[in-house]
């Protein structure tokens, strides 16, 4: 971000700290769209009714999809939490910002760093354009003060700074995955919310451990209040639920209610929350002036068995560069503006940066490589998407590339090591439109496609400056 | 069927043969619902947009689901064609009628028999109740005259008598599955419709080979004409598409149009066909007086690779007793009558017999074991389904049983032999609501459920009279 912007942002943060509420921007424009991004955590491609789940009932999201656009080839920037969130907020592959780590795939409570100050977030961008901005929910881009949302363009923050399972007890016991999983099976998991995950308002810890039984409900109330408070000015609300990431919690109204078990209870509470947000927008007369996007940060955590979600017909899940790890349900909604339908074109969370900027008349920065494509002509005119490629990084290596309907895997590896990491001299090649489950390797039939993808990779690599690994430094207690 | 009914049925068939058109029943009632059953062939649980497919676009079926009930735990009576169709039409497990074979899983062009005369079809039942009845599409319950639709309660028949791949050339070359598949890759597959599958009107062959490029379109036209001709009287239309069973054909308007390749072209043409049928019902003022059901005969034929469909998140496909073989997309539609929503209750194609009979005031026969449950209170009042179990037969053996949310596998076997057949001393047990993909065996945790299922099986077996194998006799040329 430019120095000038930075000063403005810091000034607003200071104001925010003093007043304990979001900034009051004087620049208002009733013609500007509001943006609401609802981001679930570890929800799979197949976990919503309208994406094919048989026993998780999501009437509000189904209705949102019927009224809006249901995207079926929509990606996140990484298959795990921290880099995926960095991608959404910066419009850049996390390898560029350094939010993709070689040894640590995400930030931990003992991590020292977070999203570098040099990055420009979509919140900073919109704030610069006169928007009120809020982050409600999970952050996971650095829990130390300088990395918190209020120092990254958000006027207001209410939520938890890292994953909902990142508790001292858990981490101290998690010498291996097995002990990590065993922990969840113990009594601590069943009956208490005694996790030392902090709940914060702006930069202050207001509850520790955060009571996660009511956390989805409270995020929703915060979101509704925020919308009502800001209805006279353009706003950007980033509502990032920390569920259905394990451990799973649902409020009394939802616990034990879903056919799908606790995982279904949690998704159904998020669905209800979406309904409440959309109804608030309607009731406040904001629906036609607001764009709402619903998606998730990465695929389902399959090793959690039935406490993890489903990628539907896609292969593998969270942590992998198979489709199940990085393709997500995504619904765009804005009655009267967005043309309803099913969109099989390519899109990514990184594209929200360019799309919102374009719609709000803001220029995207030209001092850095961006990975953000303006999707507004797909949304508003049903035109073909300008995005034709997708780069699948794992940690700091490029594993796979999609070009049009084809995806080449240079490296494959199961989400958690099995099957083992394998380099493919001749990349595996799949036609994702015909074969979304990545079953039928067609590399020998289409050397010309591989050649084209190799060229694309060369071009990509020639411009790649990998940001310094921000996830490496940790200070264990 | 009773002797009296039989005589009436035969008389009508004779009339039909003479006039080459459907019978004109004098008994008419504007208060009776019309029934349209649209039956696809080898379409998987995951092959429609509203069931989660990313690149097959099915706007008409999606809309039908939005206006009607989308069922997510709806089964067929067998995982392959002939017995599945027998189940739908008789309301009985095919093991009872003898339409489940020990060595032959389906009927072939050299099969000698078909659905036994002693069976009462839903067409015979409704015809007795004053309905005009038609079968348009694939039959596959016996191609010799006495087994054809016109001798099984249908006034009118237009379609092919067995599967669309059952051609002399194919069968003579099909010494193994491999040669069978190789055949499809050959030039015969690509450019010609030169299959000696006959197209019939009533009992007459009118085209051979049937031109399958236009067959879906012609079935649709026949269905529309039939609806228009019969709008003054109650009718039952069984529209059984012979696609997307391989070999795949689409008309000029659809071939090459889908992102999903030829399989998608075919499904999209069927989707368009459904739209045309529903629109015809609306245009003719029949929508509020007609119940339309869309489903398929069994899961996707996975060994056909990308020319086979997808079971979505369900396991395995056609031929197996895993969920992917026998759970199907199913949409019920009747605007103003059927309460829209997603239904996760159990239902089966066999239940159409009791449901239609109940709605039309017809008693179901009491001289035989029926496997048919009246679903009308689910459809019209959103009450819980009275069906709580499901029996999964393969050939003539009981492989698995579902009771409520639990499914026990006594025997498992991959659709085509691999993994090999295995008897489980302690049955595998899955909770299908929580674990629809049948991943997490919970048999050791729930011996009480297994005990309950064992009891159910004992009761089931005590009443089981297996019908003589009607699929065994073949007369090879």
TrEMBL record, chains A, B:
* Domain of life of the organism encoding this protein: Bacteria
Q: Which PROSITE patterns match?
A: PROKAR_LIPOPROTEIN, SULFATASE_1, SULFATASE_2
What are the alphabetically sorted keywords of the record?
A: Calcium, Glycoprotein, Hydrolase, Metal-binding, Signal
What Gene Ontology molecular function terms does this protein carry? arylsulfatase activity; metal ion binding
Q: Which residues form the Sulfatase N-terminal domain?
A: 34-361
What Pfam family is a match, any one?
Answer: Sulfatase_C
Q: Which cofactor does it need?
A: Ca(2+)
Which InterPro entries does this one have?
Alkaline_phosphatase_core_sf (IPR017850), Sulfatase (IPR050738), Sulfatase_CS (IPR024607), Sulfatase_N (IPR000917)
State the family it belongs to: Belongs to the sulfatase family.
Cited PANTHER family = ARYLSULFATASE A, ARYLSULFATASE FAMILY MEMBER
Name the chain's protein: Arylsulfatase
Source species: Jiulongibacter sediminis
């Amino acid at each position: 971000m430019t120095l000038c912007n930075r000063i403005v942002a810091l000034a607003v943060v200071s104001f925010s700290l003093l007043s304990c509420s979001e900034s009051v921007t004087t620049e208002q424009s009733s013609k500007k769209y509001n943006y609401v991004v609802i981001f679930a955590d570890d929800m799979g491609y197949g976990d919503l009714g309208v994406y094919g789940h048989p026993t998780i009932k999501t009437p509000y999201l189904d209705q949102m999809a019927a009224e809006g656009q249901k995207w079926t080839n929509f990606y996140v920037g990484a298959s795990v939490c921290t880099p995926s969130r960095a991608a959404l907020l910066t419009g850049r592959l996390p390898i560029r910002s350094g939010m993709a780590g070689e040894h640590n795939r995400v930030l931990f409570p003992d991590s020292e760093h977070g999203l570098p100050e040099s990055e420009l977030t979509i919140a900073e961008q919109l704030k610069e354009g006169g928007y009120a901005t809020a982050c409600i929910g999970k952050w996971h881009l650095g829990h130390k003060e300088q990395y918190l949302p209020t120092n990254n363009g958000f006027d207001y923050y209410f939520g938890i700074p890292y994953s909902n399972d990142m508790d001292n007890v858990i981490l101290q016991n998690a010498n291996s995955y097995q002990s990590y999983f065993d922990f969840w099976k113990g009594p601590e998991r069943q009956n208490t919310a005694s996790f030392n995950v902090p709940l914060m308002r702006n930069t202050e810890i207001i509850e520790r451990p955060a009571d996660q039984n009511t956390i989805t409900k409270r995020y929703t109330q915060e979101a509704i209040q925020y919308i009502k408070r800001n209805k006279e000015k353009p706003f950007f609300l980033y509502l990032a639920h920390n569920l259905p990431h394990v451990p799973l919690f649902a409020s009394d109204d939802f616990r034990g209610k879903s056919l799908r078990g606790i995982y279904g209870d949690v998704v159904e509470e998020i669905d209800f929350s979406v309904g409440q947000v959309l109804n608030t927008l309607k009731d406040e007369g904001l629906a036609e002036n607001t764009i709402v996007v619903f998606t998730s940060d990465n695929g389902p955590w399959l090793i959690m068995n039935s406490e993890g979600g489903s990628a539907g017909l896609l292969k593998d899940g969270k942590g992998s560069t198979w489709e199940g790890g990085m393709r997500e349900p995504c619904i765009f909604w804005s009655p009267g503006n967005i043309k309803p339908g099913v969109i099989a074109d390519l899109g990514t969370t990184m594209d929200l940066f360019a799309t919102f900027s374009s719609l709000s008349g803001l220029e995207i920065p030209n001092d850095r490589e961006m990975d953000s494509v303006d999707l507004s002509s797909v949304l508003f005119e049903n035109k073909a998407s300008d995005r034709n490629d997708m780069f699948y990084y794992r940690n700091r290596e490029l594993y796979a590339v999609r070009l049009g309907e084809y995806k080449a895997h240079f490296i494959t590896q199961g989400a958690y090591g099995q099957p083992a990491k394998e380099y493919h001299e001749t990349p595996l090649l799949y036609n994702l439109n015909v074969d979304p489950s990545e079953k039928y390797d067609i590399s020998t039939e289409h050397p010309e496609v591989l050649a084209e993808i190799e060229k694309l990779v060369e071009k990509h690599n020639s411009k790649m400056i990998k940001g310094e690994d921000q996830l490496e430094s940790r200070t264990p207690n």
